[in-house]
Amino acid sequence: MSNLKNMLKWEFTLLYRYKIIHISILSVVLYFIITQAVPDMNSKIFHTLLLFFDPALIGIMFVGALVLFEKSENVLQALVITPMKTEEYLLSKMISLTILSIISATIFIILLNVFGEVSITLRGILYLSLSIILTSIMLILLGFILVSRVKSVNEYLMGFAVAFLGLTFFPMLHLSGLYVNDIFYLWPTQASFILFKGIFGTNGLQLWEIGYGIGYQLFWIVILFILAKKAFYKHIVLKGG
Predict the structure, then answer these.
(1) How many structural domains comprise the chain?
(2) pLDDT tens across 175-185, in order?
(3) Pairwise CA distance, residues 147 & 231, whole Å
(4) pLDDT tens digits along 202-223
(5) Can you give the pTM of this predicted structure?
(6) Using CB atoms within 10 A of its CB, is residue 22 exposed (0-12), middle (13-18) or buried (19+)?
(7) Which of 31, 86, 128, 145 is 20 to 30 A (C-alpha) from 95?
(8) 3-state secondary structure string, the chain?
(9) Whole domain around residue 228: which residue ranges?
(10) Residue 157 C-beta-side C-alpha neighbours within 13 Å
């Protein structure tokens, strides 16, 4: 537990040092300004998409940036010879970046309520909390799996772009109604979009949607956590960071 506490302090130090906290907060303010400046984007669908994009970008992109920073500064080389467990390292990333996602989403919702005149029910807040936490953890783990295999920012950006597009394009089509196909329910992020959809819905979600949205993401979180541990050991521990 003490190792995890120390790692969390280190994670938040990195988030502040590399301006990731600043970028995250600035991005949601920018999202809000765009929705207010462009009338066609001031809708429930775009609000839902923007709320998804923030934990998605924080999860995949920022975890990659943090690990690459640690590699370049030889931090990982030092960590692999300490008593720190792989689980503690992963948990520190998951907790710190998920907290950042929650803060960013909260700011966006407050802005929508105060200036955008968009009201959210207590049920919507529950969906928001579940959506942000599950989506963040799932995509943080995916980002870690991707970054553990690369050596440069350019390599990671290519992998990030492919993964992000592949995970979001088809569920976005489904959510917008442009192209609806039941096969998209196999996408892990489809479960994310289902829960996010409930945030602004007046009638909430159906029971099967709640079960699918939570259960399918938890299933993928378990799978990705196992793969992330293996990736950490194979590509970082065995190679000395």
Answers:
(1) 1
(2) 777 888 889 99
(3) 9
(4) 567 889 999 999 999 999 999 9
(5) 0.89
(6) exposed
(7) 31
(8) CHHHHHHHHHHHHHHHHCCHHHHHHHHHHHHHHHHHHCHHHCCHHHHHHHHHHHHHHHHHHHHHHHHHHHHHCCHHHHHCCCCCCHHHHHHHHHHHHHHHHHHHHHHHHHHHHHCCCCCCCHHHHHHHHHHHHHHHHHHHHHHHHHHCCCCCHHHHHHHHHHHHHHHHHHHHHHHHCCCCCHHHHHCHHHHHHHHHHHHHCCCCCCHHHHHHHHHHHHHHHHHHHHHHHHHHHHHHHCCCC
(9) 2-237
(10) 3
Token pair for 63: 């975890």
Comparing C-alpha atoms, which of 106, 108, 145 is closest to residue 233? Answer: 145
User: Which residue's entry shows tokens 């990736």?
Assistant: 231
Tell me the average pLDDT across 221-237.
87
- How many C-beta atoms surround the C-beta of residue 117 within 10 A? 8
